[in-house]
Amino acid sequence: MCGIVGAVAQRNIVSVLIEGLRRLEYRGYDSCGVAVLAGGEPKRARSVARVADLDEQVCETRLEGVTGIAHTRWATHGAPVTDNAHPIFSRNELAIVHNGIIENYETLREMLRGKGYEFISQTDTEVIAHLIHSLYHGDLFAAVREATGHLHGAYAIAVLHKSQPHTVVGARQGSPLVVGLGEGENFLASDALALAGSTDRFMFLEEGDVCELTLEKVRVFDRDGKPAERDVRQVAAYGGAVELGPYRHFMQKEIFEQPRAISDTIPQSDVFDASLFGEGAAKAFEEIDSLLVLACGTSYYSGLTAKYWLESIAKIPTQVEIASEYRYRDSVPNPKSLVVVISQSGETADTIAALKHAQSLGHTHTLAVCNVATSAMVRMTELSFLTHAGREIGVASTKAFTTQLVALFVLAATLGKLRGHISAKQEADYIRQLRHLPAALNSVLALEPQIIAWSEEFSRKENALFLGRGLHYPIALEGALKLKEISYIHAEAYPAGELKHGPLALVTEAMPVVTVAPNDALLEKLKSNIQEVRARGGQLYVFADADTKILNDEGLHVIRMPEHYGLLSPILHVVPLQLLAYHTACSRGTDVDKPRNLAKSVTVE
Ligand code: F6R
């Protein structure tokens, strides 16, 4: 989703800004732009193509400056056309870039029109530009602080004004923004990653902060308008651009990285211990009587899977909710419930808002399962468990999902042990099974050629049904989500027992029905569901554990999973579904890593 970069320096910073945008490209965008103060005036270049095109433009026009801001935009208000691309100007004196959504932009626009401001774009951002301009009396920092008092909604902004040639002002509320500290130069970005190569010292701004960057100094005021100190953190882990290597897309690379990602996420320790979740976890885990899991999309499905583990291994009641629903409904808060947020990015606006909502209702015990150590969610929660998937570039989440599953299994086993529900032998067995997962995953990945053969059939379809039962119902949901988001084939998932309550009416020869069939307690029930589909001429594509005795037949296509993996089986069964979606999308020629309309990091509501 939208990305911001800003810089104040004594050298030409256009290449720093463009490189920053390149590093943010993975978040997804549909236009981009850069503005600098050149010869005392703001000058800009904008593109509705890629950052590479913007780079060509700035080279051709020799755009140069020591103070500048840049942006990748994911359209919300107004189509992705040049006029709506950021930076947005106000009267050729002020330039702004903005992430987020201003909810009261219509009221503000009318007020500003009344003051004679002309609106050129359809963006809500132009309202902020004119608002700050209208409040500017020689002090940009003061004008931005005053303007933020009038804004409702979420934003991260970076602003410059022609009368202050060595100043960039930033503000955040609901969208992330970090300050990068240099020597005689300072930077601003929506993600520390954007500034790799320029600095490794960062200040993570807090909600409501407004900051002023000049060559030598950074000033921060908090939401109450008081000067504030923010810790400076060394973040050295951000290396160079991630290479694709022998793979065709990042998604394929990330699917094949799962054995490594999982191995890095499995705790080194030979026992499940509360300390894996941070200081104070043992006390917190003792005080809780239930779990409330909040997440979106794929991360929500990992939460749904975890519910089975938490209730069966730890015998702890677990409720899993879509973050964007929870935040707006009247729930009955239970302060003894541990709130678990699950997120790859740690910056998903809906999940952050749901966490804040839970905290406002009196939930004090909170845990983030997250892939980004410096993210807002990790900073906002009492406890955390980091997944070590590494950077995930493909918009469709793969290795983040399986590493979340590992983290949540470890949570279930830890709580199960603390609550006296697992024996020392069971604990040792779980540890052994976790350690064997990377090898088991490698055998699943070896199924790729068989899956490619199926994907050619799928690429000619427009609909698909996914079935699973129990622990594997969320895996069916995840398989359907993967297929629809990258191949644009309509796909739905059902718990297989629900088929006869409606969806069976859809089953014809034209409808592929993908079934996840582990050899578990529900296998015989699932086999009956398979027969229901076959009897109606449906085409079944079954990922069956080797010992299920489900065999290839008329209308029944089977790929054998190498081994049955008990409670951890969802981690293996999701992988062929990822590969099926990936290869189907490749056959259909879609933009796999950047599917249409989607963004990697969903930082707006
Ligand atoms: C789907 C996908 C999304 C994300 C969702 C939450 O492949 O990636 O559904 O899972 O947007 O994102 P995070 O996990 O960053 O909070």
From TrEMBL:
The keyword Cytoplasm applies. GO terms for biological process: amino sugar biosynthetic process; carbohydrate metabolic process; fructose 6-phosphate metabolic process; protein N-linked glycosylation; UDP-N-acetylglucosamine metabolic process. Keywords: Aminotransferase, Cytoplasm, Glutamine amidotransferase, Repeat, Transferase. Its main location: cytoplasm. The active site is at C2, K600. GO terms for cellular component: cytosol. Signal peptide: none annotated. Its EC number is 2.6.1.16. The keyword Ribonucleoprotein does not apply. Residues 281-421, 454-595 form the SIS domain. It catalyses: D-fructose 6-phosphate + L-glutamine = D-glucosamine 6-phosphate + L-glutamate. Residues 2-216 form the Glutamine amidotransferase type-2 domain. Catalyzes the first step in hexosamine metabolism, converting fructose-6P into glucosamine-6P using glutamine as a nitrogen source. This is Glutamine--fructose-6-phosphate aminotransferase [isomerizing]. The lineage of its organism: Bacteria, Pseudomonadati, Pseudomonadota, Betaproteobacteria, Burkholderiales. The gene is glmS.
